Amino acid sequence: MNGTIAATASEEVSITHDVVLCPRADVEQVPEVTASAFIEECQVCADKVLVTGFMQKTITYAPLDVPDCDSVTNIKTVPFAICIPVKGAVPDEICEALASVECQIDELRLGGRVFHFDACVRVDVAVFDDLGCP
User: Fold this and answer.
1) Phi first, then psi: what are they for 27, rounded to 5°?
2) Of 48, 59, 60, 77, whose CB is crowded by the most CB atoms within 10 A?
3) Mean pLDDT throughout 111-129?
4) What is the pTM assigned to this prediction?
5) Which residues, 6+ apart, have CB-to-CB distance to 61 below 8 Å?
6) Cβ neighbours of residue 75 closer than 8 Å, sequence gap 6 or more
7) Which residues contact 57 (CB under 8 A, 6 or more apart)?
8) Rounded distance between C-alpha atoms, residue 68 and residue 71, angstroms
């Protein structure tokens, strides 16, 4: 992005979600889990930036009592929205946002029927006061 950075800010959003697993997971096997965060939109308002995005969690696990099946993959997308205070931001400015998964706690519950996760997504924003165009 060409232009002058007027301000930057960061905030974290907490995401808690339960994923019903069908077939249920073998609780003796540890699931393989990956997580990514994506930005869909950022909008500059007076003294703040509104950001929407989603976290995608990919869970690969060993199913219980399913013959001839070594693994099952379940992909879950969980949306988020956050309002980040940015002192001096004005509606005509342009913004860029990046999201990253900072922490996550995963747990199989109810005998492998539910995959529960808690995650923190960090959102960094930059507000530009011009695009550097002549």
Assistant:
1) -70, -10
2) 59
3) 95
4) 0.87
5) 21, 25, 26, 29, 31, 32, 71, 72, 74, 115
6) 56, 57, 58, 59
7) 17, 19, 33, 34, 35, 75, 76, 77, 78, 117, 119
8) 9
Distance CA 10, CA 105 (A): 22
- 3-class SS at 39? strand
Which residues, at least 6 apart from 41, have a Cβ–Cβ distance to it below 8 Å?
51, 52, 53
Closest C-alpha among 5, 42, 19 to residue 114: 19
Mean pLDDT (the chain, rounded):
92
CB 124 within 8 A of CB 8: yes
Can you give the C-alpha Rg of the chain in angstroms?
19
Q: By C-alpha distance, which of 105, 104, 101, 106 is closest to 61?
A: 106
For residue 12 the two structure tokens come to 């974290």
Indicate the pLDDT class of residue 129, thresholds 50, 70 and 90: confident
